[in-house]
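Extended Data, record EF-hand domain-containing protein
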Amino acid sequence: MPAAVCQGLASSFSPSLGRFVPSIRGDQIHAIDARHHMAAGAAAEQPDLLAFQRCVADHFLDLADVDADGLLSLSWLRKLLHSFLVCHEAFRPLLLDRWSVIARPPLDRLVADFTDRAVKALDICNAARDGVDQLRRLGTHLEIVISALAPAVASPSRLGLREGQLRRARKALAELAVMLDDRDAGSVPSHRNRSLGRSGSAGSSSSSSPSGSRRLSHFRSLSSSVSRSWSLVRQLQAIGSNMAAPRGHEVEATAGLAVPIYTISAVLLFAMRSLVAAIPCHDRSIQAHLSIPRTFPWAAPIISIHERIVEESKKKERRNSTGLLKEIQQIERCTHQLTELTQANQFPMSEEKQEELRQRVEELAQVCVVLKEGLGPLECQVREVFLRIMCSRIEGLDRLSQTTQ
């Protein structure tokens, strides 16, 4: 059915969609809707399935409509997680309203596969939370550097810092450089062993029944009992494995539900990959291959964003970065420039060098503000993704037990 429902959509989207989104938002979205309603088959008669496809397409069109400076910024990452949460919430009733059908083959297998992918994403959420913690520690070191170089900002008319102030600044910059070069900071087992599901909010969001409590404990253990050989790269590969777009006979046999199940699986995989690429994570890797048929209305923006992320990871200055987050790039660049400025044995510093130093310190101060304001909400969103997946699974198990009684 994807070919029947979405035939011709690939030609409507450009691979460089992120730069041309405003020009396609109007007429082509209406054209997509028209093709959906004209399609034959059971799904064409179910407006909620069509509305879900449009919801996913709209959100990822918005995400793709960003310039190179905004891509992979902290605000963009938060927008991505918000889009995932909205799409997941739109997907959930599609299953719950048809649970009597889903409990039977072949839908039971498709739902089980998606559930398995979603459970694997819980550990990635834990790894991402550890990455947020590392960014917080990075922010603390930034404050030390800014404090050490504060006289350069407070008194720009002076011809240089005193030697004692420069020594303090050099020491703070050296410590920051070590932290930026710590490739294993996200792999500390004690960090990964703290599950997002252990917070009090997890219990309040779960089912109040005894069976729901037992299942909640089970899902906690899935993320907290990770062995030392656990690999984030392999986890991402496991989520994407055997994720094939449904064929016509599968769509017909599932009353059209195979399409939204595949859609939310693709959205989950893309969100987890982007999260891992952006922030410091254990054995982080940028996987270049993302196999999604362009016949889906949401495929072009997702592929466009993914290709731009891969290109960003290939840049010489980003290959050894702890993360592709825009703010990390700013910190690394400013730290390198400040190190060069403070290592120069010139007392006093020239006015030109003093002005350059002041600009770099002010840029670091701005990054510090962004981290302070953005890391808390980002962590809350990662926790919400964790809890939403977990509680949705619990809800599904409860429905399944009611159906089989």
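Summary. Confidence is low (pLDDT under 50) at residues 1-44, 183-194, 197-226.
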